[in-house]
């Protein structure tokens, strides 16, 4: 973590709030890293809003509101709120990203790179990656299959920038399957049946892969309890009934007023950490203020757009080559 002394970097922010369980190898503690990154993104979003509205702090009075806004209807207030949010997104997220996407899609040949403030570029990169992650999580929670497919297209570009060839191929195969390789019925099933709701209620959907991990954990627990009765027939029976027996167990525990095991850890309040990070990013490091000539020592080549390093021609050629491979009879799955 060589950038620990550079204000506004993830390493410096991690040390600032003493998140020692956050390590550079995400695989060692994914949930700790995810919680920390989500908190940092939330603070960046608030800092972006306060910068756009020219607010010194969260509690400052907003000066740009229209006159008589208090007497407007709720619908009019909501419309104006969406307008302000759109301005924030255009300023800190879409300002260069949309131009790069047009290059990738073939609408323009090149994009002018300003890149005069690398610290600002670093902060907006955190915003962009964080919002892409947040949209993906929200899409899963509400079970929106169509939007999920659009998110996977952005994921292909993210994996392209990270040189993750296998993940990029997975993104391509998913798009190819739903658009061409599968029948209309199977395609609809792949798009819409990607989510499972175990507890019921709106906004509580889970990814099918994650649910499979939960079922594997339950199955292993029951297999371990077999002891000397561990036989292929017993294991097969557990595999076929693991979901039903778990539902019965949960129902009995509710009737007996026994506290159910939660799938989530109890989250401590992050209000103090939020305030510390906000002060660092807003007042001290001023990461979302455009100040020409600044740069982090260890991130002095960061672009104003997270997709600017993609070679559009090479990516198009790779996609065309894969289309030819699978159109020629290669098995995709």
Q: Helices and strands in order, then pairings?
A:
Elements: H1 10-16, H2 30-52, H3 74-92, H4 94-105, H5 118-142, H6 145-161, H7 165-181, H8 184-192, E1 195-196, E2 206-207, H9 208-224, H10 232-255, H11 271-284, H12 312-327
Antiparallel strand pairs: 1-2
Question: What are the low-pLDDT stretches, counting only 5+ consecutive residues below 50?
Answer: none
Order of helices and strands: HHHHHHHHEEHHHH
Strand ordering within the main sheet: 1-2
Shape type: globular
Q: Termini distance?
A: 40 Å
Strand content: under 5%
Largest sheet: 2 strands, antiparallel
- Evaluate the radius of gyration: 24 Å
Mean pLDDT: 86
Number of E-state strands: 2
- Fraction of residues in H or I helices: 55-70%
Number of helices: 12
- What structural category characterises the helix and strand content? mainly alpha
Report on this structure.
With about 325 residues, this protein is mostly helical. Helices cover about 60% and strands about 0% of the residues. The protein has helices at about 10-15, 30-50, 75-90, 95-105, 120-140, 145-160, 165-180, 185-190, 210-225, 230-255, 270-285, 310-325; strands at about 195, 205. Strands 1-2 form a two-stranded antiparallel ribbon. The model has no long low-confidence stretch (mean pLDDT about 85).
